Here is the input.
Amino acid sequence: MNTAALARYCVFGNPIGHSKSPAIHARFAEQTGEALIYEARLAPLDGFAESVGAFIAEGGLGANVTVPFKEEAYRLCSEHSDRARLAGAVNTLSFCGKVIRGDNTDGAGLVRDLTGNLNASLNGRRILLLGAGGAARGALGPLLEQRPELLVIANRTTEKAAALAAQFSAHGPVRGCGFADLAGNSFDIVINATAASLSGEVPPLPAGIFAADSLAYDMMYGKGDTPFMASARAQGVGKLADGLGMLVEQAAEAFFVWRGIRPQTAPVLSELRGELRAAQQRT
Ligand code: ATR
Here is the structure.
């Protein structure tokens, strides 16, 4: 194959070695017949802008951005989509001449996973969002667009939750609080957007947060239950989901931004799920 003729995309991150994005976009390209290549690129922690510049000089048309560069990517862009502006972070770059356009597909990916793959209606529901960092912020606009009855942001550092809720108050019924303040409340959907799972921890939630039919959703994913999912399961929660679907859906949304075609996500998600299960059985 003459790869020089292919449209070029990549994902920047640090670390980036375990990224599933190249495999996901390769599946999308195959499925839609789009002639593109998509690679993973390690950007030095102090060299993100240079890495992007080099990729543009090589003819790159667009890129995804992952940890820890999403805020820096936002600052690098000369144009922003509304949802990128709301998130204050960019995970999808498009290069056109001298213009670098920034978008954010994370929140849309989360909502598509919840409503499309998991059949969870958000409209009129009580949603609890755990965490007030970049991951939570990116989810807020798209979640509120679904018109929940209430969205509560709970965070270890209460002030950050309160500040985030204040910033989004014009977009819907949103409140911020600390974990202990949740006592006496229950929610239809509880979304973990904290980084607690990374250290094997679970946000300290008061008992009774989960209703009988609640969905416990972790933005993280792994070979089996994440610590948050395991904790919810131990509390009797029957509906559990990790963030693998969100990963695939945000990628599909980025693919759509670049190519104007929406790939089918279900076969890609089930393939990745199969790979994770196989890896779990080997351990
Ligand atoms: P990200 O971009 O992934 O959201 P971040 O901006 O560093 O990363 O935010 C991490 C979030 O996880 C924060 O809400 C953080 O709480 P604080 O604001 O109090 O720091 C939360 N977090 C990290 N470790 C946690 C833990 N062990 N328990 C509860 N929350 C945790």
